[in-house]
């Protein structure tokens, strides 16, 4: 049984056909690289998988069942977490508060419930330790490096123990050392049996962590290959259209 | 050397001492203490019970409003309508009592008036996505005008059968301080706890920090925004009910200019107009500072017209101070 599968997903905005018959599949503990030039339809596809958009046609299958995502919270409840490109962090809050944002740990006192900071700090610290990140739960996100911010965004996805984590350009705007850190974070997710879909422009990163690569061009998937059976040259040719299909 | 998870979890970039030093309310508290000490030397009257009683009562009316204002500003909004809501709520309360209804019904109708104004503000801002500045500027004009229409420019100074009870609530004392000051103290503590220890409070700060992020992580952004404007309306009407009782009269000009004093209290107390930072204690101290400055000028025999200049300087100084701290913390 496949963990997650897209079957013939199409999306049009009025007369504009953004996606045509996209098929995609991924198993637990796999990392799938999703590549393509600007405007190839990656973002639209991500938004459909994350529940921001509904597909015009096509089906989403999760663990052998057909599912529909009505909104991001719905998608998250069904097991799809997203690490957004801008990370969706609040600079004015601590790392732990960001991890728990929207699902704060509470302690009940009669009819009232209060935020349980000790539990949040402890849990967040455990997630950072699992990710082997040196991020400190009590620090404000404002003061953190790009890699630490990624760790906060990724730790957030661990709360719900999701089946799939979508990562939108996680290495786009950070330093070389931090890129290595983030790639390590992705490997940790994979080792814990999570399926990761990595959207990236950076060829070296995709070849460093992915098991499969899917290439999109003009709203369609033009190639889906195990990473061992392809090369950066071939993928580049597929992205630009020098090579039609593979 | 390997560090355990527990050790990492206990570390923080800011030691408690450094965090305290970067805490604007602390500096404002120190400024307030210095002014009080100096005034104690300059004037024999400053440290008398009577003066303490007057000062605490006077800043309570603004302080209560400023608490609601702080919640609004932390979400990166503004509420310019609070002064007019004071006028309208006070007028409604006065008229209901004048018509012969009981004290609790009069107060209830005043509070509901404030909530209703906040509800309209909140719906327009949260659900129709209009600018808080424009919406509350509109309410500023509408609520004041409604107060004038209702009163027909009459002053109300008779409050029906429960007049004694009603004026005792706004004008009475408890444990040697004015009732209004007790209300302010209780509300300040409630706000401190709610902002820091409730899920709602965290969401208020999250919305001010990054509204889009809050939305994506499932925070009910629209509902929280609606709630802060309703809360601000409610705080304004609480202040109005107390004010009418204390003054023993309702006039439609009541609360004029309060919006600026409430905003000033919040900002001096460390609330960031760009959202995401601020708190109840700072707001309390900010409101106190403004009143103490006013009181000090009065006692020192300075022309009362200088008050605005001093308060204005303090506002600018407070904002400069926070900018300076931001630069240092990088």
Would you mind describing this structure in some detail?
The complex is a heterodimer of chains A (246) and B (330). Chain A has 246 residues and is of the alpha/beta class. Chain A has one domain: Rossmann fold, CATH 3.40.50.300. In chain A, 32% of the residues lie in helices and 29% in strands. In chain A, the strands form three sheets. Chain A has a six-stranded mixed β-sheet with strand order 6-9-10-3-11-12, sandwiched between helices. The longest helix of chain A is centred in the last third of the chain and has 16 residues. The two termini of chain A are 25 Å apart. The two termini of chain B are 29 Å apart. The longest helix of chain B is centred in the last third of the chain and has 27 residues. With 330 residues, chain B is mainly α. In chain B, helix 10 packs across helix 12 and helix 13 packs across helix 14. In chain B, a hairpin with a 2-residue loop joins strand 1 and strand 2. Chain B has a single domain, classed as ABC transporter involved in vitamin B12 uptake, BtuC. Helices cover 74% and strands 1% of the residues of chain B.
Hey, which two chains have the biggest interface? A-B, 38 and 31 residues
Weakly predicted, low-confidence segments of chain B: none
Question: What is the residue-averaged pLDDT of chain A?
Answer: 89
Can you tell me the CATH superfamily of chain A?
P-loop containing nucleotide triphosphate hydrolases
Here the CATH topology of chain A equals: Rossmann fold
Task: Quickly give the CATH architecture of chain A.
Answer: 3-Layer(aba) Sandwich
Q: Helical segment tally of chain A?
A: 8
Radius of gyration of chain A: 19 Å
pLDDT averaged over residues of chain B: 90
